[in-house]
Structure formats: structure tokens, C-alpha cells
Design a protein that fits this description.
mainly alpha, 0% strand, 310 residues
């Protein structure tokens, strides 16, 4: 297991636990105001980290990792790409994901999101960004099948859930677009800078849309536990986990990084079983084994070439 794999495991643990954390927070704070405020907190933290990295880079005696700073100038084309990716990857993605999960079932949402690695891999291959071997596709298929055993038996598409299902499908394409587009930018700029700047761009319109609901919340009535959940979700699920995701995209390529997202529902179910006392069934355990095996196969198989960067 490499260091980047260990970081991806940490990312999966954070995102998996985040489901139970935000479920606790939603008891006191409505979803859209909660999401808007955590985006603001995360964006401010990213801006502070970018400013720190720039100051440190000016110190000739300091060593600065390319993860947090690169000296490459940001061109007009780069700014345009950052603006577009911010709107797609943070504004539209969050609108689709949060709005979709709110009006569909958890099983439907988790099963649809399980297709993310396949969508990313197909798009990456079609665009010529990566050349993937047969073992990767076997692993991806096994991982998707495992997701069905974990959550799929409770899924029922159509009817009352169709609007929410379509919104979650939209969130997948937003995330795939953001992942592939940001990967190109990070061939020249640091993951910290690209992730932080795109989050700032996406947070501004999101807060504007959610502002009426935010003004209706009596923030004085939010308990310490509610604020702790908000801070956890902002600092860990957005700042730390997003940065790990894009460091991995730069080192492993988008397809091999995306496959780890299928482990998130497993961690979410395990945390819910411990924290919320939700039952674990044989089908869920079998599905978890299939997902983990699929992830292992995609990491075991070597690409026919290194990820293609532009």
C-alpha cells in the first residue's frame, strides 16, 4: 500500500463518516443553509492556506511541496477554466446532489453514485486522458456490482423518486467533468490552488441561492453538537478530503482515484451501524467484499501508459 493509497483510505473514512455527521446536523440546520455555510468555511480555509503557501514560497530557505504551491503563472485561459469548473464542480454539483438526495431514497442515490467510477473511466478513455487495461474494467464492474449488494435491494426507480434520481445522475456528470477538467489544470498548478479557487467560485452563487433560507434559520438555537458537525463537514469532508482527491488524481489519474468513491457507502453503512445502530446484513457484507476486491484489482492492474497530462 503506497502513501497515496493510505491518504485515499483516510478520504474514504472522512466521506463515509460525513453521512452520519450531516444527518445529525440536519436535525437542527436545514440542508441548503448547512451546505452553504460549510462551503463558505471551506473556501475561507483554502484561501488562507493558499496565502500561507505563497508567503512560504517567497522564503528562499523554505521547501514548498508542489501539492500546495507552484510558480507557474495563471493565464487567462486558466482563469476561464477555473471559473467554469467552479460553477460545475461546486455550484451545480452541490445543487444536484443535495437536491437529489433530499427527494429520493438513500438506496437510489447510493446506487446511482456507484456508477461514478465507470463514468469517469469512460470519459477519461474517450478523451484520451488514460489508457486502461482489462483488469481495470473487471475491477470497476465488480465494484459496481458490490454497490448493488450493499444498497441496491432497497432501490426502486421511477414514480415519486424520478426527479431526485435524475438530479443525482446530473451530479455524477458534474463530478466527472470537474475531476477531468481539474486534472488538466493540475498538470501546471497545485491541487491546493485549483481546489481552493474553484470552491470560491462555486460557493459565491451557491450562497446567493441559499441566502433566503439562511436568513430564516435561528442560528442562536443551534447546539454545540450542530456547530461541531458543521465544522467537521467543512474542514474534513471539503478541505482535507477534496485536497486528497486531487493529489490522487494528479498521481494516479482520474479513473484509479474515482474507484475509491465506491468504498464510501461501505464506510457510511459501517459508521451508521456503530453510531445509529443500523443492522448489517449478509448481502451488505458480500457487497463490501466485492467493492474492496474491485478497488484492489484496479490498483493492481498497471495502465498501458502513465496518465496522459496536457
Amino acid at each position: 500500500m503506497s502513501r497515496i493509497d493510505a491518504l485515499l483510505v483516510l478520504m474514504v473514512l472522512i466521506w463515509g463518516a460525513n453521512f452520519s455527521v450531516i444527518k445529525r446536523a440536519f436535525l437542527e440546520i436545514p440542508p441548503q443553509p448547512f451546505n452553504a455555510l460549510r462551503l463558505v468555511i471551506a473556501a475561507l480555509v483554502f484561501m488562507a492556506a493558499i496565502a500561507w503557501a505563497r508567503r512560504r514560497a517567497r522564503d528562499a530557505s523554505a521547501r514548498v511541496s508542489s501539492v500546495v504551491h507552484t510558480a507557474t503563472d495563471v493565464t487567462r485561459r486558466d482563469w476561464l477554466a477555473i471559473a467554469v469548473l467552479g460553477l460545475i464542480g461546486h455550484f451545480l454539483y452541490q445543487i444536484c446532489f443535495v437536491g437529489g438526495v433530499a427527494i429520493t431514497s438513500v438506496s437510489n442515490a447510493a446506487l446511482i453514485i456507484g456508477a461514478t467510477p465507470v463514468v469517469v473511466a469512460l470519459a477519461s478513455a474517450l478523451l484520451g486522458r488514460e489508457r486502461l487495461g482489462p483488469l481495470h474494467w473487471v475491477g470497476a464492474a465488480l465494484s459496481v456490482a458490490g454497490i448493488y449488494f450493499v444498497v441496491g435491494f432497497g432501490a426502486a426507480f421511477g414514480g415519486a423518486t424520478i426527479r431526485g434520481d435524475l438530479l443525482v445522475v446530473g451530479s455524477i456528470f458534474c463530478w466527472a467533468t470537474y475531476t477531468l477538467g481539474a486534472g488538466r489544470l493540475m498538470s501546471r498548478h497545485s491541487p491546493l490552488y485549483i481546489t481552493g479557487m474553484t470552491m470560491v467560485v462555486g460557493a459565491i452563487p451557491y450562497v446567493a441561492v441559499a441566502l433566503p433560507q439562511m436568513l430564516e434559520v435561528d442560528w442562536r438555537q443551534v447546539s454545540l453538537g450542530g456547530w461541531a458537525a458543521l465544522v467537521f463537514s467543512a474542514l474534513l469532508a471539503l478541505n482535507v478530503a477534496y485536497l486528497i482527491w486531487y493529489v490522487a488524481v494528479r498521481q494516479l489519474g482520474p479513473s484509479r482515484t474515482a474507484i475509491y468513491s465506491n468504498v464510501v457507502p461501505i464506510v457510511a453503512i459501517a459508521v451508521a451501524a456503530v453510531w445509529l445502530k443500523e443492522p448489517l446484513t449478509r448481502s451488505k457484507l458480500a457487497g463490501a467484499a466485492a467493492v474492496l476486491t474491485g478497488v484492489f484489482l484496479t490498483r493492481l492492474g498497471r495502465p498501458s501508459s502513465v496518465p496522459i497530462e496536457e
